[in-house]
């Protein structure tokens, strides 16, 4: 798995969950649930953050990128 790729605003939630499972918990901490009713949430990190009223998306993405490769 390529851990050099970074999360950007148009990265999909599905891609994050598939490539960086260690980010599932941090996403939940921001209120972005990765699974609802057993089905993955579609859309990008930016779309989901906007729906949750997250205004500091750059900060969130920076923190997620810092956690890539950490134990889940």
Structure description:
- By secondary structure, this protein is mainly α.
- The protein has one domain.
- Helices cover 43% and strands 6% of the residues.
- It is built from four helices and two strands.
- It has helices at 13-19, 24-29, 45-51, 57-67; strands spanning 35-36, 39-40.
- Strand 1 and strand 2 (39-40) form a beta hairpin.
- The mean pLDDT is 85.
Overall 3D shape = globular
Number of helices: 4
Strand arrangement, major sheet: 1-2
Tell me the Rg in angstroms. 11 Å
* Number of discrete domains: 1
Which consecutive residue ranges, at least 5 long each, have pLDDT under 50?
A: none
Please report the total strand number as a whole number. Answer: 2
- Residue share in helix: 40-55%
Provide the structure class. Answer: mainly alpha
Task: Please give the alpha-carbon distance between the first and last residues.
Answer: 15 Å
Percent range for β-strand residues: 5-15%
Largest sheet descriptor: 2 strands, antiparallel
Order of helices and strands: HHEEHH
Quote the average pLDDT.
Answer: 85
Short description:
This protein is mainly α and 72 residues long.
Which features does this protein show?
single chain, 72 residues, mainly alpha, 2 strands, globular
Write the layout of secondary structure elements.
Layout: H1 13-19, H2 24-29, E1 35-36, E2 39-40, H3 45-51, H4 57-67
Antiparallel strand pairs: 1-2
